[in-house]
C-alpha cells in the first residue's frame, strides 16, 4: 500500500501553481543570476529588493518574449478577425505574479530563487482593469487593449488627522520591466486648426501635432502559449522646433510648449461618477482614439508579420476583420474619427463609411447616473476638434431625419434623442453618439441592462431594440483566486480538480461536498489563516490590533452617495458589531471627503472606548490598491454591497469577495441580483428596497424626516452626528452630511436603515455557528461560475464581435512549427 501524500506533496501534485513549461529549474536560476548581474553595477551583496525584483521580472519575461512573437506571427499567418478594446482606464497592477501563474512558473521560481516571495511584494503596483485582457488571451482571441500610458495614477491616499490628503502616484519612477517602447509605430495626432472644403474633399489644416509613442505590454493567456498585447500611448512633442526656435530666441517657450503637449499622458483622471468638461480630458480621449485607429488601419492593410507593405485596400471589408469595443463613452471619439479617416482620407462615400463604422463599433455603458454621462461643450469642440464637430453635426442631422420619419411631429422625442443638447450651453451627448454609431449596446449586469432599456435610453431602445444586449461583468479566477488566495484554490482543486481555473462553471461540483465535514473544516481553516495574515499586516503597517476571531465585515468602494457608505456608518454607530471598512474617494468630491472624515471620527470614538475593547474596531485603510485588495479580500467574512437599488451598474468587487469565501449583505442591485440567482437568495443576506420600490417611493415622495421621527435608534444616531458627539472640538463639522441625509438624499439611506439593521442581526447570529456559516460559504463559491471574465468575454466574442473563442494551445517557441 502506497504511503499517504503529505500536504506539501499534494500541493505539488495538484500543480495549481505548476511546474509545467520549465524543463530545468537550474536554467531558471542561471537566467536570474545573469539578469541580476546586468541589473547591478555594484556588489551583489548590497543588492536591493528592487534589484532582485527587476532581475526576476526579466527572467520571467524571457519566457514570454518567444511566445509573444510566436503569437503575433500566428495571427498574421491565420489572419483572424481582431478585436480592439479601447479604455482610458487600463492600469496593470502586479504583472509579475500573474504572469508566473499563467505560464506555470510560480513553483519553479520558488525552487530556483528562495527569496521569490519577498521580491513579488516590493514593486509598486498600479490599479486594475485587465481581467478582460487576461480572458481574451486565455480564450485564444486575437485581441489588443489600447489606452494611455499614464505617468501618474489617480493619487496616493493619505489620511492626516482624519482627512484625506492626496499625494502624487508616480507609477513610472522606477521604470517598468514589462513594457517595450515601439518608436517605429509612432503616430501623429492633430488638434486645433481649421477646416477647408474643396471640390476634391475636406482638409483639416493648420493643426498642432502631438506624437503618440506606443509602449507594448505582453498579456499571457492561461497555459496556452498565447501572449496578446496591450498597447499604451505616451504623448511626445515633435522635435523639429529646436534649432529654429532657439535661433529666434523662443527656445524656452518651445520647451514649455513641449511639456504642455506631453501633459496629455501625464495623469489618469479619477472615475468619480461626476463628469467635468476639462479640455485636457477631451484631449486624452481624442489622443488615444486617433493613435489607435491609425494603428488599426495600418494593421488591417499590412500583408504579413512585421511588414509595412500595404496589400489590403478594400476598407469595406473592415468589419469582417476588425471589432472595436468602446469601454464607456471615453473612447466615443472613435466614431467621428473613423468617419473622418474613411471619408476625408480614404475618399469613401458618407453612406459607405457610416455602414463600416456602425458595423465595426460597439459600446459598453457603465452608469445610469445622469451626472456621470459625458456631455462636451460645443465651444470646446469647435476650438479643439473642428472637423469632428462638423462630422457629429452631420451624423445628428441624418439621425434626426430618421427619427422624424419614424415619429412625425414628435418634437419632444427629437429633442430627447438628439446628439446635441440645446438647453442652456449647447453640448454633445457622448452616450447618444455611441448608441447611434454602434451596432451593439450593452449594460454590465442584467438589471443594469434592463434599466437602460426601460429608462435612460428608452427612446433609442424603441427605435433599435436589436442593438441592446446584456454582458454581465466577470473577474479572472487566475488573479482573484489562484494568485491572491492559493490556499483556497488548492482546497477546491483537491475536491474537483484544477480544470475549474479555465472553466469556472465547474465550481458547481462543490455542491456535492456541501455537507462534507472535511471540506467545511478546510475552508474555515483557510479563511482563518488569511485573517491571521491580515491581522499581522494591520499591526505591522497600521499599528492596529484586531481580534482575528471577530467577523471581518468589509466595504470596499469608491466613496459616493449612491454606494451608501453612510448607511454602514449609521449601522456602526447603532450596533457594536465587529467592523472593518476600506474605501477611497476621488480627490475633488467634497461629500466623499466628509464621509471619510466621519468614518475616521467614528473610529476614534469606538476604538478608544474601553468598555467596547476589541469587540468592535472601525479601521479605515488608506490608499486602497490591488496589493491591498489581494490581502483584504481573502480575509473578509462579510462583503457590503449596499447601494440603492437601481444605481450600481454591476460591480466586480462583489464577485471577488464571493469567490474568496465571503458572504454578501446587499440590496438587489447590480450583479447582486444574479449572484442571488446563482447561489440561491437564501445564501445571501438581501435587504432593502427593490427597483420598483424605489420608483414607487420617488412617485410618492421620499421624506427622510418621517423615518427620523419614527425610528428612535436612527434619531439617536443622527442627533449624535449633528450634536458633535464624534467631533466634540467642532460640533458643526458634519452639518453638510446631516443636511444632505435629512433633506437632499437622492439615494434614500433612511428608507433602508431599519431593514439593514435587522439583516445585520441575522448575520451576527449565523456567524456564531461556524459550520452553518461555512456551508453557506460553499454555496456561494459554488455559485461563482457565471462570474468568470472568461464567460463574459466568450459572450462578447460570439454575440457582438463575431468571433469564436478557442481553447486550442499554440506551439511554444521551442516546439516544432
TrEMBL record:
It catalyses: [(1->4)-alpha-D-glucosyl](n) + phosphate = [(1->4)-alpha-D-glucosyl](n-1) + alpha-D-glucose 1-phosphate. GO terms for cellular component: cytoplasm. Keywords: Acetylation, Allosteric enzyme, Carbohydrate metabolism, Glycogen metabolism, Glycosyltransferase, Phosphoprotein, Pyridoxal phosphate, Transferase. It is an enzyme of class 2 (transferase). Its EC number is 2.4.1.1. The keyword Glycosyltransferase applies. Its cofactor is pyridoxal 5'-phosphate. GO terms for biological process: glycogen catabolic process. GO terms for molecular function: glycogen phosphorylase activity; pyridoxal phosphate binding. InterPro entries: Glycg_phsphrylas, Glyco_trans_35, Pyridoxal_P_attach_site. PROSITE patterns: PHOSPHORYLASE. Pfam families: Phosphorylase. The keyword Calcium does not apply. The modification N6-(pyridoxal phosphate)lysine is found at residue 656. NCBIfam families: P_ylase (TIGR02093). Belongs to the glycogen phosphorylase family. PANTHER family: GLYCOGEN PHOSPHORYLASE, GLYCOGEN PHOSPHORYLASE, MUSCLE FORM. Homodimer. Homotetramer; to form the enzymatically active phosphorylase A. Allosteric enzyme that catalyzes the rate-limiting step in glycogen catabolism, the phosphorolytic cleavage of glycogen to produce glucose-1-phosphate, and plays a central role in maintaining cellular and organismal glucose homeostasis. This is Alpha-1,4 glucan phosphorylase. It comes from Cyprinus carpio (Common carp).
Amino acid at each position: 500500500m502506497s504511503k499517504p501524500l503529505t500536504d506539501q506533496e499534494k500541493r505539488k501534485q495538484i500543480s495549481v501553481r505548476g511546474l509545467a513549461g520549465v524543463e530545468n529549474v537550474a536554467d531558471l536560476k542561471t537566467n536570474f543570476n545573469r539578469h541580476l548581474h546586468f541589473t547591478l553595477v555594484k556588489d551583489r551583496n548590497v543588492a536591493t529588493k528592487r534589484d532582485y525584483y527587476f532581475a526576476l521580472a526579466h527572467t520571467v519575461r524571457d519566457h514570454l518574449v518567444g511566445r509573444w512573437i510566436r503569437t503575433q506571427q500566428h495571427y498574421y499567418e491565420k489572419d483572424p478577425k481582431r478585436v480592439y478594446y479601447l479604455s482610458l482606464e487600463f492600469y496593470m497592477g502586479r504583472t509579475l505574479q500573474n504572469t508566473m501563474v499563467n505560464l506555470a512558473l510560480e513553483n519553479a521560481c520558488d525552487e530556483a530563487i528562495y527569496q521569490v516571495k519577498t521580491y513579488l511584494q516590493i514593486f509598486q503596483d498600479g490599479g486594475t482593469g485587465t481581467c478582460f485582457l487576461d480572458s481574451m488571451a486565455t480564450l485564444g482571441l486575437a485581441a489588443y487593449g489600447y489606452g494611455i500610458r499614464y505617468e501618474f495614477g489617480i493619487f496616493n491616499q493619505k489620511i492626516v488627522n482624519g482627512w484625506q490628503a492626496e499625494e502624487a502616484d508616480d507609477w513610472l519612477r522606477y521604470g517598468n520591466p514589462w513594457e517595450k517602447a515601439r518608436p517605429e509605430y509612432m503616430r501623429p495626432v492633430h488638434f486645433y486648426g481649421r477646416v477647408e472644403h474643396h471640390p476634391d474633399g475636406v482638409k483639416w489644416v493648420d493643426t498642432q501635432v502631438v506624437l503618440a509613442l506606443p509602449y507594448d505590454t505582453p498579456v499571457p493567456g492561461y497555459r496556452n502559449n498565447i501572449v496578446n498585447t496591450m498597447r499604451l500611448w505616451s504623448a511626445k512633442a515633435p522635435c523639429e522646433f529646436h534649432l529654429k526656435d532657439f535661433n529666434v530666441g523662443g527656445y524656452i517657450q518651445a520647451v514649455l510648449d513641449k511639456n504642455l503637449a506631453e501633459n496629455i499622458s501625464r495623469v489618469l483622471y479619477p472615475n468619480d461618477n461626476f463628469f467635468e468638461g476639462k479640455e485636457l480630458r477631451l484631449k486624452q480621449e481624442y489622443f488615444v482614439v486617433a493613435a489607435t485607429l491609425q494603428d488599426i488601419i495600418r494593421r488591417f492593410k499590412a500583408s504579413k508579420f512585421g511588414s509595412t507593405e500595404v496589400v489590403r485596400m478594400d476598407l469595406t471589408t473592415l468589419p469582417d476583420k476588425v471589432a472595436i469595443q468602446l469601454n464607456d463613452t471615453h473612447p466615443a471619439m472613435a466614431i467621428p474619427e473613423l468617419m473622418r479617416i474613411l471619408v476625408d482620407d480614404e475618399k469613401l462615400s458618407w453612406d459607405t463609411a457610416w455602414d463600416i463604422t456602425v458595423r465595426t463599433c460597439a459600446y459598453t455603458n457603465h452608469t445610469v447616473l445622469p451626472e456621470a454621462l459625458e456631455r462636451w461643450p460645443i465651444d470646446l469642440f469647435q476650438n479643439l476638434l473642428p472637423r469632428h464637430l462638423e462630422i457629429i453635426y452631420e451624423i445628428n442631422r441624418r439621425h434626426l431625419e430618421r427619427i422624424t420619419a419614424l415619429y412625425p411631429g414628435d418634437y419632444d422625442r427629437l429633442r430627447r434623442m438628439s446628439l446635441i443638447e440645446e438647453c442652456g450651453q449647447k453640448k454633445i451627448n457622448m452616450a447618444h453618439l455611441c448608441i447611434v454609431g454602434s451596432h451593439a449596446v450593452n449594460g454590465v449586469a442584467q438589471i443594469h441592462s434592463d434599466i437602460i432599456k426601460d429608462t435612460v435610453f428608452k427612446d433609442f431602445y424603441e427605435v433599435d431594440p436589436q442593438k441592446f444586449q446584456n454582458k454581465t461583468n466577470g473577474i479572472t479566477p487566475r488573479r482573484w483566486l489562484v494568485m491572491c488566495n492559493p490556499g483556497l484554490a488548492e482546497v477546491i482543486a483537491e475536491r474537483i480538480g484544477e480544470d475549474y481555473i479555465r472553466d469556472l462553471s465547474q465550481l458547481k461540483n462543490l455542491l456535492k461536498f456541501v455537507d462534507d465535514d472535511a471540506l467545511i473544516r478546510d475552508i474555515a481553516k483557510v479563511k482563518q489563516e488569511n485573517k491571521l495574515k491580515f491581522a499581522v499586516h494591520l499591526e505591522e503597517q497600521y499599528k492596529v490590533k484586531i481580534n482575528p476571531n471577530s467577523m471581518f465585515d468589509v466595504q470596499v468602494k469608491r466613496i459616493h452617495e449612491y454606494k451608501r457608505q453612510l448607511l454602514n456608518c449609521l449601522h456602526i454607530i447603532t450596533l457594536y458589531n465587529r467592523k472593518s471598512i476600506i474605501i477611497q474617494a476621488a480627490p475633488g468630491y467634497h461629500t466623499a471627503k466628509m464621509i471619510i472624515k466621519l468614518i475616521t471620527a467614528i473610529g476614534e470614538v469606538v476604538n478608544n472606548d474601553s468598555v467596547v475593547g476589541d469587540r468592535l474596531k472601525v479601521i479605515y485603510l488608506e490608499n486602497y490598491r490591488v496589493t491591498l485588495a489581494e490581502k483584504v479580500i481573502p480575509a473578509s467574512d462579510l462583503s457590503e454591497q449596499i447601494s440603492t437599488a437601481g444605481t450600481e451598474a454591476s460591480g466586480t468587487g462583489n464577485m471577488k469577495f464571493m469567490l474568496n469565501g465571503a458572504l454578501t449583505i446587499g440590496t438587489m442591485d447590480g450583479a447582486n441580483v444574479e449572484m442571488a440567482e446563482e447561489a440561491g437568495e437564501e445564501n445571501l443576506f438581501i435587504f432593502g428596497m427593490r427597483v420598483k420600490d424605489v420608483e414607487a417611493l420617488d412617485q410618492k415622495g421620499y421624506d427622510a424626516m418621517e423615518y427620523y421621527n419614527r425610528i428612535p435608534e436612527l434619531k439617536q444616531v443622527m442627533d449624535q452626528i449633528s450634536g458633535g458627539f464624534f467631533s466634540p472640538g467642532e460640533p458643526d463639522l458634519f452639518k453638510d452630511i446631516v443636511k444632505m441625509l435629512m433633506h437632499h438624499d437622492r439615494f434614500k439611506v433612511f428608507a433602508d436603515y431599519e431593514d439593514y439593521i435587522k439583516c445585520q442581526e441575522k448575520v451576527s447570529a449565523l456567524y456564531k455557528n461556524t459550520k452553518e456559516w461555512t456551508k453557506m460559504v460553499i454555496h456561494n463559491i459554488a455559485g461563482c461560475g457565471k462570474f468568470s471574465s472568461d464567460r463574459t468575454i466568450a459572450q462578447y466574442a460570439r454575440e457582438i464581435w463575431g468571433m469564436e473563442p478557442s481553447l486550442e494551445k499554440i506551439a511554444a517557441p521551442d516546439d516544432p512549427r
